[in-house]
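Please produce the structure of this protein holding zinc ion.
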Amino acid sequence: MKYIPTIGLEIHCELSTRSKIFCDCPVSFGGEPNTRCCPVCTGMPGTLPVLNKKAVEYIVKAGLALNCEINEFSKLDRKNYFYPDLPKAYQISQFDLPICKNGGLTINTPEGEKFIRIERIHLEEDAGKLLHDSFDRYSLADYNRCGVPLIEIVTKPDLSSSEEAREFVEKVRLMLLYSGVSDCRMEEGSMRADVNVSIRPVGTDELGTRTEMKNINSIRGIARSIDAEIQRQTELLEEGIRITQETRRWDDNKGESKTMRSKEDAHDYRYFPEPDVVPISFKTEDIEALRQSLPELPNKRFEKYTALFGLSEADTNLLLSSVSLSNFFETTAQECANPKAAANFIIVEVLRRLNDTGLSAEDIPFGGNVLGRLIKMVENEEITAANAKKVLAEMFETVKEPEAIVAEKGYKIINDTGEVEATVKEILANNEKAVAEYLEGKEKTFGFLMGQCSRALAGRGNPKIVQDVLRSQLNKLKEGK
Ligand SMILES: [Zn+2]
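Below is the modeled complex.
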């Protein structure tokens, strides 16, 4: 490669507060256009914004999860621009004193671990949505999204490939999901990213001219837009053409971007302190209380699952990919002796059932502690693993407790050697041919006979006892021969 890419991201996430940032209109996706707005969020003259306390708590939690410092004093600013999706003609955002600064996350790259710095995270309000496509000669504005609280996470230009960007966004997304501050649903636009890309020739330090692509709403789109932009800039430089600083529109269907407008600088927005909202100040103990309220985050869980529980990285990542699944696993593991066995049972049996039925982990009709009791019965040799699967199937269909299903179906394991011996004798008597083959040295036949015994015991025979009894009976026959 002749050029080194430099990539920075601005990630916007909607906070999952119940109401908007400056009024009590509900925050929820969809709805008939302009049904979730009021005079405040549609910018009527004379209305006054009141800052949502929950939104402030959520941005602090996000900042702590992403290893940021929290500014003890912070304020909101007006960012002025005229566009029909913004009825006030300014957006209340933050300029020079964002709530969070100097954070970052470690990602894994083929060259090893790399720390990606986060310059700042600030709070702002979302704008409305313009609908252009369905109408012939005019556009319509939907202000339902106006005033939804957003955080904007701004990285330093530390990323150098689409792969690194993908890994970083995925990690940020998990951190925010576990912190409970955003649902990060990219397909609904509650998480989207602006991508800044520049390239410079190998051996030089001076950064090239950067371009920006806005509002990309899938991780795949982010990665593809970066690759396409590196390619486009490389071709221009190869032809001796200078790159223009501009904002480009990424078209994910076509896989290409087009010039949108020349890039604006901060002074174009005429930022000034928002006079209608009081500044925000924190006490150290407020910040500490929010830090304490964060649940165990995925990076900590990753260490626990791999180092303490002995799970593979692949299994760990699978369990961590959903907050509900990870929480379900944690409560299951607390109930039984072997967390690794619990993880395997969940990954193989529970996930298969979810896949088959198109459900997700949130829909599991029983708690992890209940599944833990089922796994414990296998650990304590009260039921066989084979019957545990049947119990699980029934737990998904009925709301019965595993103990009740075991009692009802008579799945209790047979640990009584005498009872097993009687069955094994019967099986040997009824399978003379197989027995003869075994005695002639056909070891394979043992598996067949084992299967016959298990079936006769209705899957309730303790496999170890059945195996021992069968082996010793066959040995007796061998010696008797
Ligand atoms: Zn409102």
